[in-house]
Design a protein that fits this description.
single chain; three-stranded antiparallel sheet; mainly alpha; ribonucleoprotein
Length: about 180
């Protein structure tokens, strides 16, 4: 029985599972985004978030502790030099799991796991969200309605001017009739 056992074994022995999670964590740190199954993404999130928290304190001890999990010095360097400064003020939640659908071959539920502060698309759209509209919603006043009515009048003489040269009487009568209808 698995009473209160929180870890997902992923159908693997402990050595295989640890190696797989270390490789996936290394890939996530180096590439900032990987695609995998939902179960592996959730297991990876539980594996990598404590490592990112440890990387906030740049000491020899924390580097050695992270290296004992990742077993890749390039990933440790990337984690401490690039990722840790960006997440220094974030209290947790460094990764995001986005479900992408089902795999063609076996129908496995697939997901994209990424580091939150390194998603360029989300960061590019976030300044647009920060802009705030006015606090109240009001209907159009007479001031805003007047320029909308006057704009077609300004265009009407420009359209009528070339027509007046060819036949001066007929188009002028049509333009004046249109102005009377608009008013």
């Amino acid at each position: 029985m698995r009473h209160n056992k929180a870890i997902n074994h992923l159908g693997r022995k402990s050595g295989h599972r640890k190696a797989m999670l270390a490789n996936m964590a290394t890939s996530l740190i180096l590439h900032k985004r990987i695609e995998t199954t939902v179960a592996k993404a959730k297991a990876l999130r539980m594996y990598v978030e404590p490592l990112i928290s440890k990387s906030k304190e740049d000491s020899t001890h924390s580097r050695r502790m992270v290296f004992s999990y990742l077993k890749n010095k390039y990933a440790v360097t990337e984690l401490f030099r690039v990722i840790a400064p960006k997440v220094a003020d974030r209290p947790g939640g460094y990764t995001r799991v986005l479900k992408t659908g089902f795999r063609q071959g076996d129908g496995a539920d697939m997901a994209l796991i990424e580091l939150v502060d390194f998603n360029e698309a989300a960061l590019a759209s976030s300044p647009k969200k920060e802009t705030k509209k006015s606090g109240t919603r009001r209907s159009r006043s007479k001031k805003s309605a007047v320029p909308a009515v006057e704009a077609p009048k300004a265009e009407a003489p420009a359209v009528a001017a070339p027509a007046e040269e060819a036949a001066p009487e007929a188009p002028a009568a049509e333009v004046s009739a249109e102005e009377n209808k608009a008013e």
